[in-house]
Please model this.
Amino acid sequence: MEIRQVDAKQGLQWLLSGFYLFRRTPLGWVFICGALLLIAISAALIPFAGSFIFTLIYPALLGGIMLGCRDLEEGKPLEITHLFSAIESHLAALITIGGIYLTGLILVSGLAAVIGGPQMTDMLLYGKRVDETELMGVMSSMLTSLLILLTLSIPLMMASWFSPMLVVFHKMPPIMAMQQSLYACLHNIIPLSVYMIVLTILIFLAVLPYGAGLVILFPTMYASMYVCYKDIFLGEPIRFKDNAHSNPVQWNDSQKSSQENTNTDKPDHEKSESKKQE
Model:
């Protein structure tokens, strides 16, 4: 398995292909994302520990969604049971990824709180008021803490981005999967930045009609993560077995150039036949 470096435009293509994957079975996607949201809300109702529990199990749920994407690509139906399909065989490894991510997040948040000082903590958590003379110092500490939180959280998110896919599809150990995920994200920082910018804009637009657009955007986002994984780690577009003779949804630049070179080497009558078939 080789980690590929793709063009910046692929960041937009991942979302477009993800939307196409959503269109294959929109009802199944709505049920899966609705169940995931219900689990998140239920966990949030548990005092103090709820968010920690959801962070631990989230990679296992994400791994199940990715297995559902693969089954959908193979012509199988996408069902709500896919959400829990990775728990049966990869629970320990995926929980480990969630535990590492949670531990790192706690350490980063603790460091940011220490740098921000007790005044910032009291103001944010307890709504304590500060004098005008102290406000500038508190705001400066808060800005420094925010920058540290973002700087250290981004690599942590990168290490967790592809790791569930690498565990469920390649049976990688959790630490190795997180290392490969971090390396892949750093190697493709430009297309991933394009992806995140476009996704942020789409989230803003989806929220405008009373959040109705999120019904489409959330499934598209999860489907695009599968497309992104295939593009970077496998160098493949999504292909559907029930439509094997048609063109794939996404073509990589290397595949395009190789096809053009092949057509160039053919005699004229074979070129015309190829164009007819296309």
